[in-house]
Amino acid sequence: MGTITNKLIVTVSILFRVLSICCAQNIAAFFVFGDSLVEAGNNFYIDTVAKPVFPNGIDFPKGTPSGRYTNSRIITDVIGEELGFKDYAPPFLAPNITGDMILKGVNYASSGAGILQATGSIFGERICMDRQLDYFGKTRQDIISKIGAPAAQALLRNSLYFLSIGANDVLFGEYETLDRNSYTNEVVSNFKSQIIRLYNMDARKFAVAGVSKVGSIPFEIDTHICAQNCAESLNNFAKLLNSKLKSLVEDLTNSLAGSILIYVDNYAVTEEIINNSRSYGFENVDYACCEVIGRHGGLIPCMEVSRVCSDRKKYMFWDPFHPTESAILIAAKYILDGGTEYVSPINIRQLANS
Which among 35, 36, 110, 111 is annotated as catalytic? Predict the structure, then answer.
């Protein structure tokens, strides 16, 4: 009788532990996958040239370098705060990620990474999406070890999985393929398998962020002599991949029982900000705030020798590739609470409450 009572006490204590996590916000934990747009510092721990060194994170409230490719917070930091999380999802590879920290979520994103394993190979080591899922599998096992399988499954099924994908597959695919239709089919096929892997590891609530208007970033503007024609070609490439990703999201919601997948239209969001830049307070929408050389500061990544603009709020782009926190705050509002022209079939706040 004493053994049964002890087991009951342990079970109840575990349930209270999970409930205290779950009830702090509408979702139990926040897991982030993707590329440099959502990286939180994993690349500091691998052999790569793509590391977000200072002045990246120059305005970050928790110290620099922040591990983020922007002047302060990334989009998932802002979304997490809005959903009630007090701390940002930490990078998986950081050595101090221990104990109960993982019960609130982990960030697996890596600069240079893509859906395809070969994407971003010029940077050296990077954590491609397949490996990010392997790392999540390790986190899942750690969670099971901490709170037991039933409680772990409850936590994981009530967590949010944010996947920022495809930008690098488009940027590098531009130079690697002539058959864009076949190439994007390969990317989407791989991503489908990756989503199913996550689903089989108890993920149920997915936010899939598509490719932004990449033809308009300072890097592309500065590196192409064909100017507008090249920008349109690259943007059309992004739209082709996005259309297939959106269709996949719709199909998987119907085929994966109990799952909810939403599509974040980053292209529409960035286009809205660019087209109405003045109303958002931006004076520069095609020039990097952190720059070295280039007509638009787009030829060299942000690094120690870079010049940094004094008023970051007037710039849409922080560096040749990534937005400033000011642009991120605007984008987050559309992703969290926007209509179906920006995120569908529901927005992230609705997904969190579902």
Answer: 36
Q: H or E stretch including 278? A: none
What domain range is 170 assigned to?
2-353
Average pLDDT over residues 159-163: 98
Domain count, the chain: 1
Is 264 within 8 Å of 338 (Cβ atoms)? no
Residue 213: name the closest of 172, 173, 272 by CA.
272
Residue 11: the pLDDT is 40
Find the catalytic residue in 169, 265, 286, 319: 319
What distance in Å separates the CA atoms of residue 92 and residue 327, rounded to the nearest whole number? Answer: 26
Q: What is the pTM of this model?
A: 0.91
- Give the CATH number for residue 212: 3.40.50.1110
Indicate which residue of 77, 169, 265, 322 is catalytic. 322
pLDDT of the residue at 25? 56
CB atoms near residue 94 (< 10 Å): 17
Whether 319 sits among the annotated catalytic residues: the reply is yes
Q: Is the pLDDT of residue 5 over 60?
A: no
Whole-angstrom distance, CA of residue 251 vs CA of residue 28: 26
Q: What is the dihedral of CA 264, 268, 270, 271, to 10 degrees?
A: 180
> What number of other Cβ atoms are within 10 A of residue 216's Cβ?
18
Establish whether 322 is a catalytic residue: yes
Mean pLDDT of 84-90: 95
**Mean per-residue pLDDT of the chain:** 92
Alpha helices, DSSP H, located in the chain: 2-22, 75-82, 129-147, 149-157, 167-176, 180-200, 218-223, 228-255, 266-275, 325-337, 348-353
